[in-house]
Amino acid sequence: MQNQMTGRLRKAPENFVQGDGVATVFAEAKAGRRSFIRSAFAAAAAGAAGTSALAQGGQKASSVGDGDPNILEMPAHTKGLGQPVVTDGYGKPSKYESNVQRRQSPGLTQTRQASVSFAPLQSLFGIVTPSGLHFERHHQGWWDIDPSKHRLMVNGMVKKNMVFTMDEIMRLPSVSRFHFIECGANTGMEWGNVAVPTVQYTHGMISCSEFTGVPLITLLEMAGADLKKGKFVLAEGADGSSMTRTIPMELITSGEVIVAYGQNGEMLRPEQGYPLRLVVPGVQGVSWVKYLRRIEVGDMPYATKDEAVHYIDLMPDGQHRQYTSIQECKSVVTTPSGGQMLLDKGFYNISGLAWSGRGKVKRVDVSVDGGRNWRTARLEGPVLTKCLTRFNIDWVWDGKPAIIQSRAMDETGYVQPTNNQLRAVRGTRSIYHNNSIQSWALREDGEVVNVQLA
Amino acid sequence: MQNQMTGRLRKAPENFVQGDGVATVFAEAKAGRRSFIRSAFAAAAAGAAGTSALAQGGQKASSVGDGDPNILEMPAHTKGLGQPVVTDGYGKPSKYESNVQRRQSPGLTQTRQASVSFAPLQSLFGIVTPSGLHFERHHQGWWDIDPSKHRLMVNGMVKKNMVFTMDEIMRLPSVSRFHFIECGANTGMEWGNVAVPTVQYTHGMISCSEFTGVPLITLLEMAGADLKKGKFVLAEGADGSSMTRTIPMELITSGEVIVAYGQNGEMLRPEQGYPLRLVVPGVQGVSWVKYLRRIEVGDMPYATKDEAVHYIDLMPDGQHRQYTSIQECKSVVTTPSGGQMLLDKGFYNISGLAWSGRGKVKRVDVSVDGGRNWRTARLEGPVLTKCLTRFNIDWVWDGKPAIIQSRAMDETGYVQPTNNQLRAVRGTRSIYHNNSIQSWALREDGEVVNVQLA
User: How far is CA B162 from CA A40, A69, B219, B293, B294, in A?
Assistant: First the structure.
């Protein structure tokens, strides 16, 4: 991690950047609200010291906090009668936030039914992902299934096959827990050293929600599952992709795996598997089977198409990594990030997300010099297991080029690797499970671009 | 709390129940998804014991988990191609959830611009309130203010008056925290012993979100506020209601009060004060000034119209309770709750919410016999300070009349009072701050109705 200020600036492939979504986001990010293009900020100019970093930011006199009070003179909303209470529908964001959307990457997929949309991480705060901005990954499109007709079957190595209605499931003892879900392919373009321009596209296949549902172990106990011989469970979705994945029984007996119907306080969204999806904390998203219709208990892995052919990684020795499931510890700075512009030096709040499929995030360090020096960031509470953790750290930009990185450590002691450390183990031909340190280069002109350090 | 099975059944006033919103919710709640009207549930019939309560529920044979597997035969969504990824807008709930909405109570207010809409607590899970269902309380309607034109002024007992743009505020060190917001008038109809039919209307002026913003103390320090003589702060909103409230300085120096722009991961919604609102954890919602445009530091309470004339309670001795701010410990069972139907005996998950403006919820007890016997419920994590806490407890209904209640205790040792305990102190002429134990009577026919016990 020493002396790595030489990050190559990479040109993004034409077909990727020219895609409608990417180009739009890129343009909007350069021009937009999160670009900090207003006059420079300097705390000392305000006549008082805040934090020490705020005070450091004071080397440049500026007009911050010194705005024209005339703008406070009676705008329309101060004089008039506003809109009535919203009772004829479901509330929506401000019209000024219409650029904050999930975006598809046209370069990655052939059809929009078997595609991905990315969450706008550069515009999000805290750890909860609004359900309307939750990333999507469909294998054969999404459906709005009538919950009164949906059923969940439990079969295989059980005393009695069972078929549950939604009402029956919703009468059972429930739990509510916050967890992240990350597609195994998140940050996959970095394997190929593709300069994906914004954090929405590098890391936007992750979201975090409060899920509510019934622990799967409750259903297995009701069906009299053989928990000694039954070492694995097959989870099957009802949509046309016939998504099927093997789940190790130890994840289920721990009580962590949930048959979920609730997400962020309401019922699951159709794009997320309404009315029922499996929640497998810490495990890659493909195992969180949507439109869940069947659970089968078995004594060996099922080697389904979705785990034997898809979602495998080619290792340097020619073998495939299979049944990869746990999402290792990872982090990314979301502000400032690719496509954003810092138009003047001074104080900034560097903010980002960290997570681990093995437990809680223990620490996040941030470097602004490509890994030569690291400072420990502040973690926003609550820090929960297998959940996003928001970090923040003060920074005063001196106007010189910088490379901004974050490095997370989880409670097992695992440290997020550099690109070289990851490739030493996994080679360069993987698609999935890239959790290496992300580098954002800040140029002298204030533009932030995606670079890849060793 | 002994022998209180005599809860009066109360007839709701015509003008309240006949209101469009109430009638609709009442009808839907009786017929709807959360009504558990499907065949009875019995774990023993499944051939395996789950929890002990599940086993107890087995006294009645039933068809639960014994559904017709033929329904698994190839529905359209298993054969066809679904909808493409959603990239042309903001995601929405399922069409089957269209009855889950915030509702206005026409009987309570004269105009919809100075009105209330209630969150559908009976349909919500966990602790996060989806922003599209967050309760509303407007004094002169809501606005979608252009954030590029919005300013926040800090003045009064400060070294330098300051005016901040949104961009300037968003560059400052930020925090993200989960807190509930409750209107001081929530459950106010219970003072008058009005049989508000559903929990949406009895308790739906509460919501809970993850808020992101800048601690107010940071802004005050930047402006050089006099933190010794400055004992109070005035918060002023930009909308036509000129909402102004006094906030004691000790809440601000603790770092708890936030000038927030983020809510549940995205920017605030217009109905909630976009682009800036004050977050005053534990304090009644009226102090969470929306469209925040000015903070003034002063040495005495401001006695504004919103704290001297409105939001006051008449005590038995003829004096008014003023500057009431902290929302005391409170809880409510949301399922089963008023308007819902239990059509058969057997196992149920009793679920509800608890909160305290003084800290964390320590314990919630649940009674099904009107307060004679209490069992301690399971609290879902994380249990956070001045935040909603979800509780759950197993229950097997024997088919006889029951009165379901919850009673919360916070970390200060304060216990949620009965109606009589509260009235002994506050009398009967208050409007605000009713935090007494809520009672739901379950009739033999399975209907759940709002009753008031002593």
Answer: 15, 9, 9, 11, 10
ipTM of the complex as predicted? 0.88
Chain B CB contacts of A122 below 8 Å: none
Which chain B residues are closer than 8 Å to A260 by Cβ?
A: none
Q: Are the beta carbons of B83 and A113 separated by less than 8 Å?
A: yes
Q: How many CB pairs under 8 A join A and B?
A: 449
Query: Given B85, B349, B382, which is nearest A174 (Cβ)?
Result: B349
Task: Tell me the domains of chain B and their CATH numbers.
Answer: 136-321 (3.90.420.10), 330-452 (2.60.40.650)
Q: What is the pLDDT of residues B75-86, one digit of tens each?
A: 899 988 999 888
Which of B90, B113, B128 has the CB atom closest to A82's CB atom? Answer: B113
Contact criterion met (CB < 8 Å) for B221 and A291: no
The residue of B99, B125, B272 whose CB has the most chain A CBs within 10 angstroms, and thus the best one to mutate to test that interface, is B125
**Measured distance CA(B410)–CA(B421) in Å, rounded:** 17
Of B54, B178, B240, the CB nearest to A82: B240
Residue B55 pLDDT: 38
A454 min Cα distance to partner chain B (Å): 30
Contact A173 B51 (CB under 8 A): yes
- Inter-chain touch A168–B223, beta carbons under 8 Å: no
- Of the candidates A142, A153, A177, which has its C-beta nearest B83's C-beta? A142
| Chain A CB contacts of B347 below 8 Å | 171-172
For residue A349, give how far its alpha carbon lies from the nearest alpha carbon of chain B (Å).
5
Residue of B20 and A411 predicted with greater confidence: A411
Task: Provide the edge-to-edge strand list for the sheet that holds A402-410.
Answer: A8-9, A448-452, A439-442, A402-410, A361-367, A375-376
Residues B9-62 pLDDT 10s = 333 333 333 334 344 444 444 443 333 322 223 222 232 333 334 434 433 334
pTM of the model: 0.89
Facing A48 at nearest CB: one of B149, B174, B222: B222
What's chain B look like in SS3?
Answer: CCCCCCCEECCCCHHHHCCHHHHHHHHHHHHCHHHCCCCCCCHHHHCCCCCHHHHHHHHCCCCCCECCHHHHCCCHHHHCCCECCCCCCCCCCCHHHCCCCCEECCCCCCCCCCCEEECCHHHCCCCCCCHHHCCEECCCCECCCCCCCCEEEEEECECCCEEEEHHHHHCCCCEEEEEEEECCCCCHHHHHCCCCCCHHHHHCCEEEEEEEEEEHHHHHHHCCECCCCCCEEEEEECCCCCCEEEEEHHHHHCCCCEEEEEECCEECCHHHCCCCEEECCCECHHHCCCCEEEEEEECCCCCCHHHHCCCCEECCCCCEECCCCECCCEEEEEECCCCCECCCCEEEEEEEEEECCCCCEEEEEEECECCCCCEECEECCCCCCCCCEEEEEEEEECCCCEEEEEEEEECCCCECCCHHHHHHHHCCCCCCCCCCCCEEEECCCCEEEEEECC
